[in-house]
Amino acid sequence: MGDYTYILQKVSAGDELLPEEAKFALREIITGNVSPARIAAFLYGMGCKGETVAELTAFVHVMREAAVVVEVNTESAIDLCGTGGDHSGTFNISTAAMFVAAGADVPVLKHGNAGVSSRSGSFDVLRCLGVHPDLNKEQVETCYKETGIAFMFAPLFHPAMAHVMPVRKELGMRTFFNIMGPMLNPAGVRRQMIGAFSRETAENIIRILANLDTEFAYAVHADDGLDEFSTTAPTHVFQLVNGTLSNSRVFHAGVFGLSASTPEELRGGSPEENAAIISAILDDKATSAQREIVLLNAAFAVHASGIHDDIQDAFYAAEESLEAGRAREALQKLAACTKELQKT
What we know:
The chain has helices spanning about 5-10, 20-30, 35-50, 55-65, 95-105, 120-130, 135-145, 155, 165-170, 175-180, 200-210, 270-280, 290-305, 310-325, 325-340; strands at about 80, 110, 150-155, 190-195, 215-220, 235-240, 245, 250. By secondary structure, it is an alpha/beta fold.
């Protein structure tokens, strides 16, 4: 197992890595012991053969062990994010939804990145919204304790990724790091809503989370390709409650009385353009299609927190957050707090 050539040969043959082999392979990468060419071969080979739940669980354990830990009270706290890589070109829906959830009194500890497989990651759009999204561990802890909302920029909390990021960018394709990213929250939140770029990936994510210390999670993928709850097509929903997986179900946005929209109505663009859309949503000046998809995702994020047992009540709470201006206030609080912390 000490020979990386053996690992690459096993992967190229399509053989599953044992958990200890998977851990060894990733530890060698993140400690800088593997050349960029071999990292690329490993990432590509894993993608070609298809990563198993056991392998991905092992990878998640390694990355969590290597993370900079944010030490805060995570009771009822949620993270909501997608794997990315759905190539949908939408605006940053989960980033908008985080403020709606926060305005509904849900603690939010969002973990995110700059754009890797899209033009605008959550880091990029938050910066355009006046937030300083590159806070360190102590600053994030202070921000969360003061406002109940915080953003953790992945590279600052996963320094081990420094050896991987150049290779990921050069490859320009989805890798298992897309799948793992949403499960590597530095604060260790135990309640999550995760969007996936495929139905199979959503199912794998919920099964991985079942192997970890997760209280409640949604993993979703929509038939239109979105890694979000969608208003343009049915959404496949996988749910985990205290280690118990429910059967997958199909959700239609019409349940909440929301109108069907088209992909074009949800299209985003540059970080600046996406920030303008989010601002319009928070000011209740956006199109109904933009507003409704954010409400839909915020409702499930609120429900994931456990504050509301009934999903309909969670939807009403999200709607009130937006209409009463509390979602806008949540953004303002985060922006002001991060600005102040950047001075220290």
